[in-house]
Amino acid sequence: MNVKIALLPGDGIGPEVINAAEKLIATVAEKFNVSVSYERLLIGGSSYDEYGTPLTDEVLGKCYESDAVLLGAVGGPKWEKLEHNLKPEAALLKIRKALGLYANLRPAKAYNELLSASTLKSEVLKGTDLMILRELTGDVYFGTPRGFDEQKGWNTMEYTKIEVERIAKLGFELAKKRSGRVTSVDKANVLETSQFWRNVVVEIHEDFKDVKLNHLYVDNAAMQLIRDPKQFDVILTQNLFGDILSDIAAMITGSLGMLPSASLGDKYALYEPVHGSAPDIAGQGKANPLATLSSVAMMFLYSFNMDKVAELIDSAITKALAEGYRTPDIHSEGTNLVSTKEMTEAVINNFNQIYDEQAIGATS
């Protein structure tokens, strides 16, 4: 198999976690006989500094030519005073829209080894394994008109039927492969857009009667995520609400540094950790690479259909945590505080070990 990956390190700790990902990908390529070619490209603040724009047409063209895009993180105080369309974050909206990435998958899993890293009680967290499915190209982020002046600001929240239909279908399909439950999150008691969302989701559910569907208002969903996260399997929600809920889900894992994501469309896919650029720790070796390494696992699963690779990466991460390796964001007394590089090496060593053990077992 030959695959081409566009690497977009971005800003802050982005280059550090992408370096970690590249090392893991190289290991996977060697073990599974995959030929991987890379192209490192600028995005976000680093692109603005070089070209005066957070995302160039040339970089976008390179992404179109790739089998998958792997992104680090963008943004930082340095660029906060720029006009909205020039800020690093504008690149994310542009690339999602340009690549047609309408579905954002954000799993949140409570590792037994990290139950103490969260401020929530371990008995509340233990056994949690959910997927937040966020619609990514509609809602207030893209609705027009939008703007502000000295007296007011305005945005337009809108969805078309096809936008809701395709994300709802994906939500039910994901649930069929998991525990068969979808919770659709909206604000239908207040927002017409949400009532429209709910109506379409109910309509699509007619084709997925083997999946259980229930509805929650977003404020209740936020509370329930903290109160009893185990009740959820697939959370299907609008763009704005998904943005907020997925960050709340970081409480389940104990750190944003543990949350991976996949943004999928009909032709293209982009993978990235949920955490930000964390400029305050950039270049210090303190970044947690696990969200990015888990995003690599999602890439091999969804873009390259290599389920075994995703399974091995997850097992390697679990083993590293069980061995007590911790970056500063998840460190606690009695665990081994390590750098970004050391955590990456631990995961790769475990990946190789698990692979070799299973290869031996398969031939015995």
Can you describe what's shown?
- The chain has 364 residues and is α/β, with parallel strands linked by helices.
- It folds into two domains: 1-104 and 260-364, Isopropylmalate Dehydrogenase; 119-253, 3-Layer(aba) Sandwich (Isopropylmalate Dehydrogenase).
- It is built from 13 helices and 14 strands.
- It has helices at residues 14-32, 45-51, 57-64, 88-98, 122-125, 161-176, 192-205, 218-227, 239-248, 250-253, 290-302, 307-322, 340-363; strands spanning 2-10, 35-40, 68-73, 103-109, 129-135, 147-148, 153-154, 181-186, 212-217, 234-237, 260-264, 269-273, 325-326, 336-337.
- The strands form three sheets. It has a ten-stranded mixed beta sheet with strand order 2-1-3-12-11-4-5-10-8-9, with helices on both faces.
- The radius of gyration is 20 Å and the shape is globular.
Attribute tags:
364 residues; ten-stranded mixed beta sheet; 13 helices; 14 strands
CATH second-level architecture of the largest domain = 3-Layer(aba) Sandwich
DSSP, total strands = 14
Structural class: alpha/beta
Please state the average pLDDT score. Answer: 94
Shape designation:
globular
* Percent helix: 40-55%
Number of helices: 13
Question: Order of helices and strands, N to C?
Answer: EHEHHEHEHEEEHEHEHEHHEEHHEEH
Total number of domains: 2
Q: Find the CATH superfamily of the largest domain.
A: Isopropylmalate Dehydrogenase
User: How is the largest sheet built, in terms of strand order?
Assistant: 2-1-3-12-11-4-5-10-8-9
How widely separated are the two ends? 27 Å
How large is the radius of gyration?
20 Å
Most strands sheet: 10 strands, mixed
Low-confidence residue ranges: none
The level-1 CATH class of the largest domain: Alpha Beta
The fraction of residues assigned to DSSP E strands is 15-25%
Say what the CATH topology of the largest domain is: Isopropylmalate Dehydrogenase
